[in-house]
Specification:
mainly beta; 25 strands; five-stranded antiparallel sheet
Length: 279
């Protein structure tokens, strides 16, 4: 395991699911130390569709979703088989999966937009950039999708910034001023959402049209190329942000704004909607 490039970790009770860049999916039993491996095989039915595993997520119904560079699949623990979703494209890279407060499952892709599986029907719906629709996604390249503790669904993109889903219009508003390229989103113990671009750190406030505040961060934090979804928050109130040169740690509860650093206050904008500053 020491020379394997790891793309994602998912703790599921005593099992740690380890998605790798080229070596499939590893499952570590933290009690016994036993490791089980799953890989793509042309000759084995119901194997992984790809050896690049980007994310693992267990939904509210107990379904284990596995996002790969060649589609999204579910794992059947009784048969040890992987089943692809026939409603979804297979030749698409899925990069992130999460559930929302209603039990719906959202799956982000690299170039094909966002897919949502209804908690009630099990049917999938695609959300993509559509020039004629003001509330569509701004781009189709999604880096992360996250449901926060307030029940808000955030969509991070590469080229279209940070977006917030609005169920009343079944569309998305963009958080202006945060930047076009979003690499990670992470929530702290005070339910503050932290967003990292390719060179800047932001705090996002509460509400349906929250303010985004740019905070001071040391230059060394951005010295290496940031990986997508490379941040995590620990029970000790420490945030870990990884890059190609290692990782940087800090306590969000103690961070302060530097008076000399630029501070941008902006709001979620919905085209043709009322002035957000009045709300």
């Amino acid at each position: 395991m020491s020379k394997i490039a790891v793309r994602t970790l998912y703790c599921d009770g005593r099992l740690l699911w380890i998605g790798t860049a080229m070596n499939g999916l590893k499952v570590l039993d933290t009690s016994s130390g036993e490791i089980r491996s799953y890989e793509y095989s042309e000759t084995t039915p119901y194997s992984l569709p790809s050896n690049q595993v980007n994310d693992v997520y267990r939904g509210y119904h107990g379904t284990l979703f596995v996002a790969t560079s060649w589609g999204l699949c579910r794992f059947d623990s009784s048969t040890k088989h992987f089943f692809t979703f026939t409603q979804l494209p297979s030749a698409v890279e899925f990069v992130d999966v999460c559930g929302d407060a209603l039990g719906n499952v959202w799956a982000a892709t690299n170039g094909s937009g966002l897919y949502c599986m209804s908690h009630n029907t099990g049917q999938w719906k695609r959300y993509a950039y559509e020039p004629s629709k003001p509330y569509s996604l701004p781009v189709n390249t999604i880096t992360a999708v996250k449901s926060d503790s307030y029940g808000r669904l955030w969509v991070a993109t590469r080229g279209g910034g940070l977006c917030l889903y609005d169920s009343s219009i079944d569309g998305f508003g963009r958080c202006e001023g945060v930047g076009d390229i979003i690499n990670f989103m992470c929530e702290d113990s005070q339910r503050t959402l932290w967003v990292g671009t390719d060179r800047t750190l932001f705090m996002v406030g509460r509400g349906t049209r929250p303010a985004a505040l740019r905070v001071f961060s040391p230059p060394e934090m951005w010295s290496g190329l940031l990986m997508q979804r490379s941040a995590n928050y620990s029970s000790a109130d420490m945030m870990f942000i990884g890059n190609t040169e290692g990782f940087y740690t800090f306590s969000p509860l103690q961070i302060r704004n530097d008076a000399q650093a630029p501070v941008y206050i902006s709001a979620i904008s919905f085209p043709n909607a009322s002035d957000p500053s009045a709300e």
